[in-house]
Amino acid sequence: MCKIVTPVVTVFDENEKPDYEGNKKVIDFLIEGGVDGILVLGSSGEFTGLTKQEKHDFFKFYADYTAGRTKLYAGTGSLNFEDTVALSNEVNEMGYEGAMVIGPCYYALDQEKIFVYYDTLAKAVKGNLYIYNFPARSGHSIAPETLKKLVENNANIKGLKDSVSEPNHTNELMLAVEGHEFEMFSGFDDQFLYNLTSGGVGCIGALSNIVPEIWSDLVKSTKEKDFDRVMALSELTHELMPLYDLDSNFSLLFKKLMQHRGVEIEDRAIFPYNQMEESVYKKAEILLDKVIKKYQKLK
Predict the structure, then answer these.
(1) What's the domain range around 158?
(2) Is position 73 annotated as part of the catalytic site?
(3) Least buried of 61, 78, 154, 290, by fewest C-beta within 10 Å?
(4) Does this UniProt record's set of keywords contain Glycoprotein (predicted)?
(5) What b/e readout covers 235-274, taking b as 16+ CB neighbours within 10 angstroms?
């Protein structure tokens, strides 16, 4: 098994509310690009700017508009535990593959508290649950023994997205859940191949918002064991990694680059991330065009 799931950007209107027509264009662009699934309201989706009701409505919109054309995952994490439970149950009823939840931030969590949080959540959610491990944002990282205990005690914990700078952590997690059906995703695009060799299933990588065709080609080539092409395509995703570091909120930049690729959407972000130097965008545009030209020569 090998797949790319897009942590999709959210298109906003002038009031910083979801622009449904614009988001339809994003959905169509990704599906036509061949991605295997979409994660709605993950980090790339700027979920922190929406109320619980707005999140519910947006999840429902995605379920209705995609209409089974691709698999859906929902980022339901919230500082309010009851909201997290409610949204997680709601998306499972809507037909999502599962809810993906980052742990509570601000207050520190040790491993016992991480276990209690996800164990309590899993027992309250009547559907599939995916853990989102992103220590740079949450302030904590799940340990292998904690994950092992969670999976052994909760059959509905189906997988994890591991956004870590040290990929060996992913390998240690996979060893801990050996013998269980478990979907391990890399959260960083350049760890895709390492994830697979660790027993994972692929990547939830935001670069697929911009170049879904490169990512779907990489997945296809991996399945077909065309290793020369796999290496060439992997090099292209690595070349694009600097895009993440050009702005504090890369989602705005990615929306601008999607515009550059012909997706007719607004390029607003949530407050206060709407400012960007033109020089930053131009630098990103040059890099993207360079990579796309290289990809076209591979065909």
Answers:
(1) 3-221
(2) no
(3) 290
(4) no
(5) ebbeebeebeebbebbbbbbbbbbebeebebebbbbeebe
Q: Extract the tokens encoding 105.
A: 């931030």
Per the structure, the count of domains in the chain is 1
Predicted TM-score (pTM) of this structure: 0.97
- Per-residue pLDDT 10s for the chain (299 aa) are 799 999 999 999 999 999 999 999 999 999 999 999 999 999 999 999 999 999 999 999 999 999 999 999 999 999 999 999 999 999 999 999 999 999 998 888 999 999 999 999 999 999 999 999 999 989 999 999 999 999 999 999 999 999 999 999 999 999 999 999 999 999 999 999 999 999 999 999 999 999 999 999 999 999 999 999 999 999 999 999 999 999 988 999 999 999 999 999 999 999 999 899 999 999 999 999 999 999 999 97
CA angle 216, 2, 90 (to 5 degrees): 90
Q: According to the annotation, is 265 in a ligand binding site?
A: no
Q: Which of 73, 117, 118, 132 is catalytic?
A: 132
Residue 252 lies in a domain: no
Please, is 233 exposed, middle or buried when counting C-beta atoms within 10 Å of its C-beta (0-12, 13-18, 19+)?
buried
Say whether 161 is catalytic: yes
Round to whole Å and give the CA distance between 31 and 208: 11
